[in-house]
Amino acid sequence: MILERINELLSEVGQLSAKNAEEIEQLRLKYLSKKGEITALMADFRLVAADQKKAVGMKINELKQLAQDKLEELKASVGTEKQSRELLDLTRTPYPIRLGTRHPLTIVRNQIIDILQRMGFTLAEGPEIDDDLHVFTKLNFAPDHPARDMQDTFFIETNPDEVTKNVILRSHTSNDQSRIMERQQPPIRVICPGRVYRNEAISARAHCFFHQLEGLYIDKNVSFTDLKQVLLTFARELFGPDTKIRLRPSYFPFTEPSAEMDISCHICGGKGCGFCKHTGWVEILGCGMVDPNVLEACGIDSSVYSGYAFGLGIERITNLKYHVADLRLFSENDVRFLRQFESAY
Ligand code: DAH
Questions:
Q1: Structural domain of residue 29, as residue ranges?
Q2: Distance (Å) from CA 310 to ligand 1 centroid
Q3: Percent of the chain whose pLDDT exceeds 90
Q4: In this structure, what is the dihedral angle of CA atoms 9, 11, 17, 18, given to the nearest 10 degrees?
């Protein structure tokens, strides 16, 4: 009798299940408490014949152990189920994602754009693949200007006929000037960031592609003073209010007069250091008054309108801000480099 009952209970206990702690407690009361089923067996145990006692006793112990183990097991599984249910968010991606960082060139480009937009410039973009007409001819480059040489410019030559030879990768963002003036009459106040290409051997200091930003302002009575004040404000916004600028005479085919702008070295404050080659100044852009030939070539009356243009290298400014020693780092996509830049921009 008692053995049957024990066997019944063994299979019953073996199959116990519970959804929560409360149910487990109910099971404990039912089987293991003083008034529980297993304790109740003890009353019958007293009636067991002496020679059977040992075997039945072992069976009861086995049952008790099983019940205890089972309840422990249920406790553990209910606990983890509860925990995992609380943590379970089906909208989450299945692995932790590190927040990305913006590329340093993007950060600096966005800062430059932000400053110039606040000064009234609107944003535009031109083609990276363009033709000789817009990259050089309309910008007053003489037919034999060295920039047209294949050593500087990438020509796209799928067919050696005249038309396809004329397709090139732009070597500066100034092509945006001719594209914009061609389709829009003044007032024009625009900035054009973008990628440019030059046939250069890749090294720490040069790359076959890099980034520029072109600025163009055409209206009535635009003077060099306007240009200078805009550039001074720009430099102070970008590098800090104590920044000084200086304009050195220079030459570009599409501007007359032309200048290059230096800023006071913001590392040594103008005193002279290794970074500015002990001059106290670092060059950041080229600029000038748009050559009347360029205005005319693009369909703008140079007797009515005048304007200024400027062009800067985004890598150059990024280097000044972050002291990146090797230009190649910008295009290698090494996350150890890229993760060092974090920005709200
Ligand atoms: N296009 C020139 C370059 O790539 C930079 C430049 C100089 C742009 C003077 C301008 C400018 O708009 O006025 O070196």
A1: 2-87
A2: 6
A3: 54
A4: 10
